[in-house]
Structure formats: C-alpha cells, structure tokens
Amino acid sequence: MQGKHDLKQHEPHIARMYDYYLGGKDHYQVDAEAAEKVLEALPEVRVAAQANRGFIHRATRYLAGEAGVRQFLDIGTGIPTEPNLHQIAQEQAPDARVVYVDNDPIVLAHARALMVGTREGRTDYIQADATEPEAILAAAARTLDFSQPVGLSLIALLNFVPGAYEVTATLVDALAPGSYLAMTHLTADFDPEGVGATVKVYTERGLYCHPRDKAEIGRFFDGMELVEPGVVPIHRWRAPVEPPKTMDVKVPGYAAVARKP
Length: 261
Prior knowledge:
Elements: H1 14-21, H2 29-41, H3 45-64, E1 71-75, H4 85-92, E2 97-102, H5 105-114, E3 122-127, H6 133-140, E4 151-154, H7 164-173, E5 180-186, H8 192-204, H9 214-218, E6 225-226, E7 232-233, H10 247-250, E8 253-259
Parallel strand pairs: 1-2, 1-4, 2-3, 4-5
Antiparallel strand pairs: 5-8, 6-8, 7-8
Helix pairs in contact: 1-2, 2-8, 3-4
C-alpha cells in the first residue's frame, strides 16, 4: 500500500510490486519492470518479502494467542498470500474479527474473493488510503469495537507513507488500552548502498519511499510497551531458530510489537 497515488495500469504500485517479489501473478508489466530494478539494487529483496510474511505469522499468533487479541486492523494488506492474517488469527481464535485495508482495487477484489473467514468470526475489506487514518477508522468501526483491544498491523507500509508518524499516532490514539501495534519498516542500517539505490527506483517512479534507522523506527512506539525482544531485524523477532548474522544484510528492515498501556 502507498500514500495517495494514481493507480492506473501504466504506473507501478507498491502492492503489485510486492506481489512480484513474492512470486505472484497479480501485477502488470510496469510493476514487474520496476520490481526488477529494485532486484538489481537489492538482489535479496524476495528474501526480505518472505521475512515480512514470516513476521506477520509469528506476530499474529502471539497477539491472538498469548496476548488474547480478538480484533485486527491490517493496513496495507497487499495481494493475498496464504496463510493470510485472518487465517492465522482465526485458527487461534475462531471468533476473531479482521479488517483489511488497501488502496489498490486489485488487492480488494482478490481479498473479497479469497479471504473468507470463519463462521464465528468476521472479515471485512476497506478500500482506503493510509494517509487518511480518520477515514480508515470510521470505516473499520463497522466491524471492530474500538472500546476493546485491537491488533494494528502496519507491515512494510510506513516507509511508503508521507507523514508516517502522524498517521500512526492518529491510529494508535483511537485504540483502547491493551491494544497492540505490530509493524515492520525499511532501514538502510545494514545495506546503505543497496537501500539507497532502491529508494531511487521508487522515487523516480513517483513513489514515496523513506527508510529509517533503528532509533527513528523506535519513535513509532513512543508511549507504548515494547514486547520482547523489542525493535530487532525482521527475521529475528521471536524466530524459532536463530538466523545467521549474514541474513541481516539480506533483510534490510526492523520489526517490533508493542502494547498500548
């Protein structure tokens, strides 16, 4: 998902480029061409995309299981890739409610067709832009009860969103105490040259892209209680097996989960 941007087929879109990285088929030639340029800058970007998926799975299992969260708001959903967030959440808690948000009509069309939840729970889909958090919250309130805890998922999103701190603050402020924020974010800490070239690919195509260092990413969680192990490389957040150090340069991003007190 991205900030406000024309979604015509002759312009690349972040969600469809991400689909290309994951080996999907729901993208246009313009997305594939832009994604190939990113692959030249970051040859391991597919590894990073898979690491983001792995984090979603681990974080959602934690939230729906250990943390007892029963409501989820996933902004910047992307093209569906199984298992999806609602499948993991409803596997842990069949009555879980999940709202997906993206601004690409292709994403929402696939979501409605493929993301079918449990009979006990509920799954909804909103076409909206991440730069308009108030509109997202208003639409999500059809499905979610914001007087109760919500798991807010912002995966590989905020580095593509202008005004990301303000957007996140607006979203978190609307959540009840006991809610959680789970996110991943691009960084140049491990591979400045490769990430710098990647940013150039996006910006030359009119797509906003702004990596942040570890301290800057930590600011998104101001006033919240970080869940162990805190802000760490994406593939290291509660990994079942300790990844080799060489993975860090291949996955240029941080992940964290935090609780709103």
